[in-house]
Amino acid sequence: HPDRRAWHRAQAAAGPDESVAAELEASAERARSRGGLAATAAFLERAAELTVDPAVQADRAVTAARAKYQAGDRAAAAALLARAVAGPPDDRRTAMIQLLEGQMAFASERSGDGPRLLLETARRLEPLDAALARDTYLDAITAALYAGRFASAGGLSEVAAAARDAPAAAALPRPADMLLDGLSRLYTEGYRAGVPLVRKATTAFQNAELGVEDALRWLYIACHSAHDIWDDDGWQALSARYVQLARETGALSLLPIALSVRIGMHLHAGEFAAASALVEEIDTITAATGDTLPAYGALAVAGWRGRPDEAAALAPAVLDVVAARGEGMGLTLVQHSLSVLHNGLGNFGEALAAAEVGTASPHETGFANWALPELVEAAAGVGDRLRARRALDRLAELTGPSGTEWSLGIEARCRALLTDGLAAEDHHREAIDRLGRSRGAVASARAHLMYGEWLRRQDRHGDARTQLRLAHDRFTAIGAEAFADRTRDELTAIGDRVDPRPAPAASRAELTPQERTIARRARDGRTNPEIGAELFLSARTVEWHLRKVYLKLGITRRRELRSALPAEP
Which H, E and C letters describe 18-42, residue by residue? Predict the structure, then answer.
């Protein structure tokens, strides 16, 4: 077995040995092709240690550092970078070191530094390697989106302008080339100019056979770009692929980010239980790797579920970490989640305050875009039609060029709130029709709620009851508790009695978060070793947890989990 032979020779080596180092490098390539990042990193780290030539050793140290970072070992990656820095001077290697430093700054304790580092590196690479320079500009755009208002230098406008002037792509552009061209146009010339190019790029990402390295590098920004142009079909396909690949390859530094992207998709689709399960998985991974990721997912789930106590407990701590790390997109995510929460509760003044902060930095796209309809609803709720109209005008600049059922449905729903007379009904019906054809289950239910509220104000109580009953049933099934309660209040106002939300079953409420996660995986057919591999537990520990689950649920065997713990919608 060539890889085992190479590893044993490496362990037996008494000192530097280029033949062994070359064997290890070949083994690393085979491990990479199989998607084994941890093995790739181990082979490359040892190869660097056994390399004789100082320049080659430094080059291998950079490659090993990248693999270590992707596998979730930031400390080892930093140590290998330090070894590479100590190598002989080389312009290309220096640029590669700066590139990895910029990538590691992204979504770390110093996210605000990422755009500057990556923009400088891209400019340095232009005369050395045009294709790599283009890739680095795309990394810089990703980092600038993430840092948002907290970028220490090299904000999104500057980065996008520089990327637009980057060397042209090859005759047959890759999906990453197409995305760079599209995003640089989108963020410099607006949605009407950029959306067609971005949509072409995200479609190419869905159809292309990407290598592991390219897929791990680009699927985050491809997912973000899909939901940025209101393409929830692309968001669904790309986020599912991103999570699967990060899991299969053991990319532990990227898996929490992939899961966070997927949590947003699940919330949009009304799959709250699935979103909660991924929040628990992120907690497990970050505990194993020692990474610190703000509780974005947990806060978003609390906001969409309509649980003010949970959100109030989470928000201050998350905001403190966001400011310290320099993550503007994180700040916008928090404020968007709070605006959803308070609109659901009918606290329109508080929703307005949160949405104002969430929409203050348009370059924190995605969440800043989605906060605009929350701002329209909240401003209309407090009677500030001028502020609502301004937000709608901003929203239409995004939704119109995007042209999806999701985007046009959201725009129609907002227009209905600001239209007088019976013309409002056409907008309400359009919103229901369009959002019903999108993946936005919560957005669709909210369209029925707003139509029902309008019908009640028109004293059309029979029609209002139909819409409100439908909305209430959907909110209840989804688990959107605040919106369900708001809908029930509307039904009560027209004399329709609705039973209060049932409390969760005692048996399920007793399960700890980890027990629920393990029970769901066992119910869905995973074996104990498979569950343990995903959650960093031994198969014996999984079995121990399952015995406790059986006892709490009053069952005796695995097959009974299907009835005792039904699959969530």
Answer: HHHHHHHHHHHHHHHHHCCHHHHHH
The CATH number of 506-564 is: 1.10.10.10
Percent of the chain having pLDDT more than 70?
A: 95
Can you tell me the distance from the alpha carbon of 427 to that of 259, in angstroms, rounded to the nearest whole number? Answer: 35
Q: Which tens digits make up the pLDDT trace of 166-182?
A: 999 888 899 999 999 99
Q: By C-alpha distance, which of 120, 104, 367, 419 is closest to 260?
A: 367
534 Cα distance to chain centroid: 19
Domain 169-292 and domain 506-564, same fold? Reply is: no
Task: Give the C-alpha distances (Å, rounded to integers) separating 199 from 104, 234, 460.
Answer: 28, 9, 42
What single DSSP character describes residue 360? S
Torsion angle of C-alpha atoms 300, 305, 309, 313, degrees rounded to 10: -20
State the CATH class of domain 169-292: mainly alpha
Q: Give the burial class of 429: count Cβ atoms within 10 A of its Cβ; 0-12 exposed, 13-18 middle, 19 or more buried.
A: middle
What pLDDT shows up at residue 501?
Answer: 60
Q: Name which of 160, 163, 202 is nearest 179 in CA terms.
A: 202
Q: Which residue has the higher pLDDT, 471 or 6?
A: 471
Query: What does the alpha-carbon distance between residue 403 and residue 401 come to, in Å, rounded to a whole number?
Result: 5
Average pLDDT, the chain: 88
Contact 441, 269 (CB under 8 A): yes
**CA distances, 367 to each of 225, 338, 351 (Å):** 12, 12, 15
Scan for tokens 């010339």, then name that residue.
189
Domain boundaries, the chain: 169-292, 293-493, 506-564
Report yes or no: 141 and 100 within 8 Å, Cβ to Cβ. Answer: no
| Domain 293-493 indexed as CATH 1.25.40.10 | yes
Predicted local confidence at residue 107, as pLDDT: 58
d(CA 107, CA 92): 25
- CB-CB contact of 355 with 378 (8 Å): yes
Looking at residue 498, the DSSP 8-state letter turns out to be -
Count the Cβ atoms, other than its own, within 10 Å of residue 378.
27
pLDDT in tens, 316-335: 999 988 888 888 889 999 99
